[in-house]
Amino acid sequence: MLERSELAENALQALHDEDYDRPFNPQNLNHTTMIFMGDREQVSLNGDWNFCVDLLDTGLRQKWFAMEPAAPEDRDEPWDYDPYMGETVPVPSCWQMLKEKWYFFEGSAWYTRAVDFSPKPGKRTFLRVGAAQYDCKVFLNGAFIGNHYGGSTPFFAELTGRLKDGRNWLMLCVNNVRTTDRVPMRNTDWFNYGGVYREVSLVETPESLIRDFFIYLDPESRNNALRVHVEAEGADTATVSIPELGIKENIPLTDGKGETVIEAGPILWSPDKPKLYDVTVMAGQDRVNDRVGFRTIVRKGRELLLNGKPLWLRGISVHEDDAKLGKVVTEDDLRRRYADAKEMGCNFVRLAHYPHHERAVELADEAGLLVWAEIPVYWAIDFANPATERDARNQLMELIRRDRNRASVVIWSVGNENADTDARLAFMRGLTEMARAEDPTRLIAAACLVNHAKLKIEDRLAAHLDIIGINEYYGWYDEDFSELPKILANSRPDRPVVISETGADADITEHGPKSGLFSEDYQAEVYEKQISTLRDLDFVKGMSPWILYDFRTERRQGIFQRGFNRKGLVAADKVTRKKSFAVLQEFYRAVAAEEVEEWEKQ
Question: Other C-beta atoms within 10 Å of 532: how many?
């Protein structure tokens, strides 16, 4: 660490340095530094951390991270902040939910905590941050380790050889400022929570290390064979075991990578029978376990086929938002979400508009719910900026690497409501190509815009998708319901369309109206009209109305909104159901009954 006089001199020099962030923004903590988690043991670093908001980025300018712990009376000079004492906040949490004065704060904040550690011979140690919004810079014992971009995906920093025997000090500088080169950029329609809002832990591994593991039903196989891909360091072979299927297969590794196909014949995973198998992978001294389901999802013309059977996606969109916890999710909250979706008759959830907690898709595997997972390429992204493309590609890679063993995830979505420009087409076509290269087992979608003047889907990206998502709000932002079937008929889509959003606001608090716009009755009427319009369109293969629960968004400040989007079928308390819940429930149950009847005929 720096001497006190040197720190003071550096602090003075930094007062007018507007390039202060450059040395701390290599974005070196990314998908290439991920490790496969499985059920690895973790040492939790959750709990109270010292905390300070830093509106002017004084901490980076003055290098707070280089200060050594000392009692106030032992310090030679005054400092604007002491990372080792003072106010604390819980991790995980969103700072907006902790104090009213932080509610709209956007900027940097510093988290500091002690880490007591005893190195073990032959072991490696990694820091894992489940998610921090948005740019997270990591410092250990005064040294800069690296930073990560992206507010919704996990990242890893190897600390092997950097942790001292005894007490260490870990510092995170987290910045949630909306900028034009980030994904998403400045203009969004959900609340910009800040902070370390998912779990933080230390992960210890052997020197040999399994970096990546992907197992899936081989789409080219006719007898349900499994294809296995392993990436490992410090090993020449890997072993994959699935005891229930009698499988134990050795995979040679060349330059740390290996792949094989295994004859297996597993029971296929489906919403009706969400069968999961325990899988173990070993490479060198490293061992990981996973619970994996096997299924196929394909597009054939306008049809969606799950395990060879026609599929209609009875869905609902969901945000990661809670009236009390903000963006922090709990096991109970996730289970309630899926219980409500199942009660509504859903077989499908759209996790909008960013990667949700990994536990969300693990529980979807168990519950038998199909998942649309997406990255926040949302609205007016700076598609011509290479920095923006780098950010989007990394977020997509991290999402795929994290969740591609989850049978529930059947759709990767690469964007939402973007204007069709040449730069955007090149940008998003690149994302679709990357997703298919990384994962040949899932469908690719995006929520596309329509040409309302021509009543036609003219988005050039549609030709590169498996599913055309359409966000339409007839009855709310657009009045004439007769335009909806005209749009779809004029477009003559050669692939399935999913209505990825539709709905209307309903304020059912004591402030809400009893009739007309924003009333509960009006919202229910919109749903009734949507259902009657869509149910006879044979190329529409599903819908995920907007949205399950009311959620917080600073852009919505009408007298009936008051900082919330009120399109939820359930109020923000996640308990009180609106009339439209029962309307959609009746429709979905009818669709499900028709599917069963059709299958029985076959």
Answer: 11
